[in-house]
Amino acid sequence: MLCDDCERFFNKYETMFTNKFFDSYIKTGKIKRRVTKQMWFFNYCLSVNWRVLYDDIYNEHSFEGDYPYDGFVDYEAQLSGYLNNLKNGLECNTSQFENYVFKISELTQDGSIIKLFESLLYGYCIYNPTYYFYLTCTYYKGLLFVTEFIDKKVIYISTIKDIWSRKHRRRYLMREIFAEDIIEQARLAAQQYNENITNKLKMDIKNRYYSE
Length: 212
Fold this sequence. Notes:
By secondary structure, this protein is α+β, with helices and mostly antiparallel strands. The protein contains eight helices and four strands; from the N terminus they run ααααβααβββαα.
């Protein structure tokens, strides 16, 4: 999805992610929150979730014809513009994006769901109409990386604006959203897995039949 120059540029963030965050997480099972607040980590999350966002809009055609579609198109344009400016050494405005990192065990106590998402690399987009959240998320090795797009064209009523202005409250809202969503995503993932197994068995039987 990226040209060679971009791959080389953003690979440095992937290397830092592995060396400064992921290796430690694998060993200890703990998230170093001070690391997640660093700028390189912020940029790593954006570069990963941009790929999910672009794929969801332009390859999977998600939300096409639905109300959130234009918002996600604007989200992708703003995010790709940010990443291009970053690569070219230009001024970058970070105010429209926020990242969150959760352990799956923060979202559910269901051991089967936790185990399922430990083995998945999985991403998609969500629009939450209650709080006008445009979200892109990636699940990886028992972790959930969420990027929020703050649509500044939206005018919030005072009660929501108060919530919006409190970062810790927004994190709480994200956790609540994904605590509900992860159950549905686990169901869909298990359904897809069962369908893949069934299709493989059918193909094996068909190949055996014709070989005999």
